[in-house]
Amino acid sequence: MRRVVWLTDIHLNFLQPAQIAVLEDAILCASPDAMLVGGDIAEAHNLPAYLRGMSERLPVPVYFVLGNHDFYRGSVASVRRMVSELCRTLPNLVYLTGSEVVELTPSVGLVGHDGWADGRAGHYWTSDVFLNDYFLIADLAEPLTSAQRFERLNQFGDEASDHIRRVLPPALERYREVFVLTHVPPFREACWHEGRTSDDNWSPHFVCVAMGEALREIAAQRPDRQITVLCGHTHSPGEARILDNLVVVTGGAEYGCPAIQRVFEFD
């Protein structure tokens, strides 16, 4: 039996060292063989320190993606480059956005990508939502116009989609079930907030439509395989069955109270 714990939106930079120790003790008590971390770990300037601490104190493989908060006070390319360089020095850290398929068991594989809310869900052009992303991430901040930001969001979503289209089909050739770890819900049906899915005003900023389209197409081509998507970002839990063989589980979260979302056990 192989045990894998999944966490998301842990926001370690909101915690005191004693609180981080409590979280780490809970993870160790779960006796995992591996960890999945679905992004929003910290912010760009302190992310390496938290990842290094995780690597040193949790002696299991840590497979992770990044969330929007992880890019705050930085740029997307610079943070990804920094994290990739760190992973080369810490072999138990695996950044899935820069990786191929990972084997969890002989029948279960893992792929992943940060994902990005790409503006395509809901009504971007009439939305009055203005996230901190658009102040604190260099790629999305002023002097970009709304139209330029929309184009950039589209590009980030397409990048996530392209990665999934490249790594998921060969993973499904090898494994009967593949987990897809990402930060942003790839379907509006999985974009939960307080028990309901997000409306047209909020969903442009919380759904990666391009990745969802890729997942739906790939799943439809392989009805003999199971795809389970793990995401977060909305801080509200929920589960959505998109197709018979495509399920999306969205993790909940509360600032200052990170917790294990689920423990998966594989034969």
Q: What does the model show?
A:
The chain is of the alpha/beta class and 267 residues long. The chain has a single domain (2-266), classed as Metallo-dependent phosphatases (Purple Acid Phosphatase, chain A, domain 2, 4-Layer Sandwich), CATH 3.60.21.10. The chain contains six helices and 13 strands. The chain has helices at 17-29, 47-57, 76-89, 133-136, 146-174, 209-221, and strands at 2-7, 34-37, 62-64, 93-95, 102-105, 108-112, 177-181, 192-193, 196-197, 226-231, 238-243, 246-250, 262-266. The strands form three sheets. It has a six-stranded mixed β-sheet, covered by helices on one side. Strands 4-3-2-1-13 form a five-stranded mixed β-sheet. A two-stranded antiparallel ribbon has the order 8-9. Helix 1 (17-29) links the parallel strand 1 (2-7) and strand 2 (34-37). The chain is globular and about 50 Å long. The mean pLDDT is 97.
What would a concise description of this structure say?
The chain has helices at 17-29, 47-57, 76-89, 133-136, 146-174, 209-221; strands at residues 2-7, 34-37, 62-64, 93-95, 102-105, 108-112, 177-181, 192-193, 196-197, 226-231, 238-243, 246-250, 262-266. With 267 residues, it is of the alpha/beta class.
Q: Averaging pLDDT over every residue, what do you get? A: 97
Give the % helix: 25-40%
- Name given to the CATH architecture: 4-Layer Sandwich
Low-confidence regions: none
Q: Which strands sit side by side, in order, in the main sheet?
A: 5-6-7-10-12-11
Distance between the termini: 5 Å
The radius of gyration computed from the alpha-carbon positions, rounded to a whole number of angstroms, is 17 Å
Shape: globular
Helix/strand structural class: alpha/beta
The total tally of domains equals: 1
CATH superfamily: Metallo-dependent phosphatases
Largest sheet: 6 strands, mixed
- In total, the number of strands is 13
CATH topology: Purple Acid Phosphatase, chain A, domain 2
State the name of the first-level CATH class: Alpha Beta
Strand content: 15-25%
How many helical stretches?
A: 6
